[in-house]
Design brief:
globular; two-stranded antiparallel sheet; nucleotide-binding; Rossmann fold; 8 strands; alpha/beta; GTP-binding; binds magnesium ion; 204 residues; 6-stranded mixed β-sheet; binds guanosine-5'-triphosphate
């Protein structure tokens, strides 16, 4: 009787999925909120505020003139990649004046997606610097906006001056499958890096 009960409990414990935290970062208006909403299986939490006339001197909407709102705290969503692997997604605010929130959002994260728009690559420099400096694994996802010229990933890598090991992929942040692929890339990259770091250094 007792054995049966503990056995059941053990089963329940092993069935618990692994939960990982992933950041969705990048500059202003690159599609972070869009990506989280596209993949989330729960209604995503958003913290959008209207872009106003008063904010015009600070909010550079050049290139994203159709944009009316901006994230002021974070986006939050969840996606089950496999039955034993759940990702919690935290989208960062894109504007410089919200940088102070990043350290809190980044705590405990396994890795990050840095979204980039090839028409405004410089928007995502700050996010790349941030993760490089902290040694947090990240992948760059080029969000292919309609009307934007397409560049080969190697050209984007060169323009962003990022390491060869950092994955660079093309995506459409509005498409669930495309956004999911980006997340799989980040998780795989972070896992690879973690296992490489665990391996003992080779002796020369
Ligand atoms: N055509 C096209 N439009 C997109 C795509 N991704 C986002 N958009 C649009 O671009 C605008 C910006 O998207 P958001 O998801 O709000 O960008 P964000 O990175 O969260 O912006 P901030 O939070 O203000 O930094 C929105 O109007 C989206 O509808 C895309 O892949 N293609
Ligand atoms: Mg946003």
């Amino acid at each position: 009787m007792v054995f049966g009960r503990s056995d059941r409990r053990r089963k329940a414990v092993t069935a618990e999925p692994v939960a990982l935290k992933i950041l969705v970062a990048g500059g202003f208006g690159v599609g972070k909120t869009t990506l989280v909403a596209a993949v989330s299986e729960i209604r995503p939490l958003r913290t959008e505020e209207s872009l106003t006339e008063a904010g015009r001197p600070f909010d550079d909407i050049a290139g994203v003139e159709t944009k009316h709102t901006t994230t002021v705290a974070m986006d939050f969503g969840r996606i089950t990649l496999r039955e034993d692997l759940v990702l919690y997604l935290f989208g960062t605010p894109g504007q410089d004046r919200f940088w102070f929130l990043w350290d809190e959002l980044a705590q405990g994260a396994l890795g990050a997606v840095v979204l980039a728009d090839t028409r405004r690559l410089q928007e995502s420099f700050g996010a790349i610097d941030y993760f490089e400096r902290r040694g947090m694994p990240f992948a760059v996802a080029v969000n292919c906006f309609e009307g934007a010229r397409r560049y080969p990933v190697e050209e984007v890598r060169h323009a962003l001056d990022i390491d060869e090991q950092v994955p660079v992929v093309l995506c459409d942040a509005r498409q669930r499958e495309s956004a999911k692929e980006v997340l799989v890339t980040v998780v795989a990259h972070a896992m690879e890096r973690a296992s490489a770091q665990r391996e003992p250094a080779t002796t020369r």
